[in-house]
Structures are given as C-alpha cells and as structure tokens.
Write a structure and sequence with these properties.
With 97 residues, the protein is an all-alpha fold. The protein has one domain (5-73): lambda repressor-like DNA-binding domains (434 Repressor (Amino-terminal Domain)), CATH 1.10.260.40. The chain is 61% helix and 0% strand. It contains five helices and no strands. It has helices spanning 5-29, 34-41, 45-53, 60-70, 91-96. The longest helix has 25 residues, at 5-29.
Length: 97
Amino acid sequence: MKNDAFARKQRIDKLMRRLQRNLRQLRYKNKLSQAQLAAKLNVDQSTISNFESGRSVMTIELVYELYILFGDDFSCPDMLFAQAKPAETTETERLQD
C-alpha cells in the first residue's frame, strides 16, 4: 500500500470522516456550541464548522488538543494516543542502585 497513492488517499479520507463525525458527536454530547468549543481551542467558530463539514482538515496539534479536552471519548481506531509505559527495570539495573 505504501506505493498505492489511491489506497492511501482513501484511508486518509476515511480517517477524516471519522474524526469529523466524532467531533460533532462529542460536541453535542457535552452540550457545546461550535463557538464554545472554538473558544476552548483558541480557534474561530468557523474553523470548527469547517472541520465538521469537511471543508478543512484538522492539524495534528488540534486533534491532540481534542484528545486532551475530551479524553478517551475522542477516539479514532486508526490513531493511538496512549502514552508509553515506563520500561521495567532489569535485575542488573536494580543491583546497580
């Protein structure tokens, strides 16, 4: 698939539709207007409208801000926001301490 531009474009479009739908559903669920959500993200109301309608694309920065704002409710199966767990110390590291 890495050389198949059409397939990549299809997957990206599907991801964007999921993000748009998820954003609108979470905004309704949390009883936020587009203007209220825009104020929380420091963007214009029209930016939220454009995201939800698909007229513009969210930056990865805004996607992550939405995840921080809504937590695990803002999910997309194709994107993982989980933080890396700290590696367990090995026996050798424990002996050195």
